Amino acid sequence: MRLPSTAVCLSVLLAFCAPAAWGATIVIKDDKSQPESLAAAPDGTLIVGSASTPFVYKVKKGSTTPEVFIDASAEGPGTFFFGQLVDGDTVWSCMLTPVPGVTPVARHTALIGSDFRTGKRKLRWDLPGANTTCNVMAVGPDKALYISDTGNAKIYRLAPGAQSAELWLDNRLVTGIDGLTFLNGTLYYNSVFFNNLYRVPVDANGKAGTPVQIWMDAPVKGIDGLRTTKDGKMLQAENGSGKIHMLTINGDTAHVTVLKDGLKQPTGMDQSGDVIWIAERAAGQVVSIPMPK
Question: What is the mean pLDDT of the chain?
Fold first, then answer.
């Protein structure tokens, strides 16, 4: 994640090769369109949010034509999107809107739940506070949705069927939280500020304990999105070094295996079948690579 100083409304045109094959590319008009996060549905559909426009796009498998999935133009000037997640028939999105006339820059942010088929609004929950950063979300083994607030070092929990989330973890070690995912029932997150990876222990009552740092055995720079693949591998983006890597967790150590380098500010990724789709924010495009065996 890199917070933009301004968000400019741009019309977006996507053109790409067959999305079912790795090596394909989705070009989003130009390098200013900033695809920050993406999510892949089980049917191969891609949901792509823009960090410079008030739009989220849907790209159906086999299609070469994008559809506007969410249009948040009415939310106010500069509205844009971060995290995207497909959860059954719901698409979860983090929407950010600048507060006008405030210096330094402040934002009101919200978690948006939309119907996967129609885009119809199902839920809106505004993060509490005068200046917040809804960034990403993940579904836990309890079927609840966990949401990161990067600027305020917090994780919220939205219980199944609830209309508002509750504070789940507020700890200084959560400062700069960006990526968030579950692996084998355990919540892991990273800090884009400090380039650290953590797991969160949970007691028998579901209460979060003090985060435990996981030592990564290779240098990383600007770690960003986290995703767990269908076969239990953890993927992590490095927006500062242009890499996507895989993490193999062994206790409090993580082995880093680079899957792709030479990218322009990769900020998120997700698996679709036998490929990994990557949001390459600074290049204004989404690219795919083969899923490692």
Answer: 90
